[in-house]
Amino acid sequence: MPYKYRLYALGNNEHTQLGLGPTSTAIQKISYLAKVECPPPKYNQRISSIHCGANHTLLHTETSAVHGAGRNVERQLGYRVRKKNSNINSNFAIHQDCLIEFDKMYRRISFCAATERTSAYIVNPGIEGNPTDIPLLFTEGLNYNNDGELGRTDLDSTVNIRNPDTKCTFNPRLDKIPNQWFPVGIVEETTFPASKVIDLAAGMHHYVAVLDNGEVWGWGAARQQQLGPDARRTYPAGVKRPNNITPEDLGFRPRKVVCGQAFTLIAGEPATGAYTILGLDHKSVVKDRPADIKNWKDIVATWKAVIVLFQDGTVRGWGDSFKFRLIPQRIPLLEQIAAGTEHVVALTMDQRVISWGWNEHGNCGRPGTAVKYFNDAWNVITGYKGAVDLIAAGWATTFVVTRERDESSVGAFAYHVSPPAEQVTDGGEALQDEE
Q: Matching Pfam families, A to Z (predicted)?
């Protein structure tokens, strides 16, 4: 490997979702950037994406493996719990309430995502582990409010599908696949066409997938029209199996999907900037949207807002800005952007990691203070070693992945607010896989 990778985290750790290991199980809030000791950096596997549920985290590596940490009461992380931790915290090990550090769960995963209490995985055709010509879906966890986010029709939980002490059995459709483990079986109700998934996203209680044939599929909560107005009328209690939700008047070929708490943004090619939003107009997320987002580089969503990063490094946002200004004034040009439920993390063109928004759990950094919101101001987060490769944000959590060639010691931590408080102009408060 040409690079050594490191993972850092801060924010809410109430259910060990930061994956910091046994020494951090009693620490519920971490407002300084802490190094995470976990398999992907340890084995120099690049982390390609990070996905967060309410209290669990999924790391998806460049080698298509998934590592998980955090709350596992509802089996959103399956049954893979490290026995070596049994002498450290019996509550976590025996009752399997949490994975206290990142553990390798699955291999050969094309896409993954997480809602509040579930996880979803896609294995595309052509990937070893999928002998069919359709994408395979498997889900784990607990449907919330009977919304159907597991996509398993009448099954609302995978908690009791199998005993964790018994040997895992293969789903009949996959029984000829070596070294693959689907402990709760694939979603038999899935009727994806012969195609491949090219993007997958999750809201609070719904999932949406974009296929390379131009179709958009979704399942889960539909009351707020996040899966389209037709889904709300047809499935008022939730879409309990994956369905084709492609809008009839879409008018462009989908490439990317982004989900807020209860809305879905479907985008086409950056060159055209075409996009649409499914969902009710909460906080003007529909009414205030621009006509197009031409030359977009990335698109992210908080609970009730959208932020677009353009190829020239500028950003634009719309939607809920009640608690903090979506785009702080005088913000520098950005290279990467990530959004949690109510906070934003970005990498500037000059390679600084900055964060703004809700900071109640320390997820924007700045230890030793009681800054609840960074409103029209941002915090510069330091304390990592190497060049920033990836940033991610979740339910009051923040992650930074770095790369470097030299394994030297990590430098000291330093935090400050930028711009200075006197420049704030809006009057807001600155504040399981086999080894």
A: RCC1, RCC1_2
Query: Is pLDDT above 60 for 432?
Result: no
pLDDT at 430 over 50: no
pTM of the model: 0.87
Higher-scoring residue by pLDDT: 88, 292: 292
Residue type, 59: L
Query: Shortest CA distance to 317 belongs to which of 362, 357, 281, 285?
Result: 285
Among residues 357, 372, 356, the alpha carbon closest in space to that of 418 is found at 356
Least confident of 147-161, 245-259, 305-319: 147-161
The candidate with the shortest Cα–Cα distance to 59, out of 72, 71, 43, 46, is: 46
Q: What is the pLDDT of residues 291-331, one digit of tens each?
A: 999 999 999 999 999 999 999 999 999 999 878 899 999 99
Residue 101's pLDDT is 87
Q: Which domains does the chain have, with CATH numbers?
A: 3-409 (2.130.10.30)
